[in-house]
Write a structure and sequence with these properties.
single chain, about 140 residues, alpha/beta, Rossmann fold, 6-stranded parallel β-sheet, 6 helices, about 35% helix
């Protein structure tokens, strides 16, 4: 399994690491790059995460998703997560996880679980108490 993430303030990175620990075994957790998927070798499941920025994933995650060939993820189990601020007006723009999931599903991937969001207490964080544990539990569920 491969967990690919981008992080601006370090919060998404911490959640990605918690997800990797929750999956256990041979899970790899890597910061997003154009070659993240190609360099990983055979992948049976792909988990992609990003901070929510203006209702979307970060530009590096958008570029990564756009660069994945359909033949690479067609039929693959995938999951998407984000970190998000739970302010009043944030919900109007949507969240990154849903857009990440839509991108992968549009290429023929199969969602292992609905997109998931993990809450930060402010724009720069920190992560809300209990979210690390919730991320690890979510990961155990999607790894089944």
């Amino acid at each position: 399994m491969l967990v690919v993430y981008d992080s601006v303030y370090g919060n998404t990175e911490k959640i990605a690491e918690a997800i990797g620990r929750g999956i256990g075994g041979d899970a790899k957790v890597v910061r997003v790059s154009k070659s993240a998927l190609a360099d990983a070798g055979p992948v049976d499941m792909l988990v992609v995460g990003s901070p929510t920025l203006g209702g979307r994933p970060s530009q590096p995650v958008q570029d990564f998703l756009a660069g994945i060939p359909e033949t690479t993820v067609k039929g693959m189990k995938v999951a998407a997560f984000d970190t998000r601020y739970s302010g009043k007006f944030v919900k109007m723009f949507g969240f990154a996880a849903e857009k990440i999931a839509e991108s992968m599903v549009s290429k023929g991937a199969k969602l292992a679980a609905p997109p998931e969001g993990f809450v930060v207490t402010g724009k720069k964080g920190p992560i809300r108490e209990g979210e690390h544990e919730r991320a690890a539990l979510w990961a155990k569920e999607i790894a089944k």
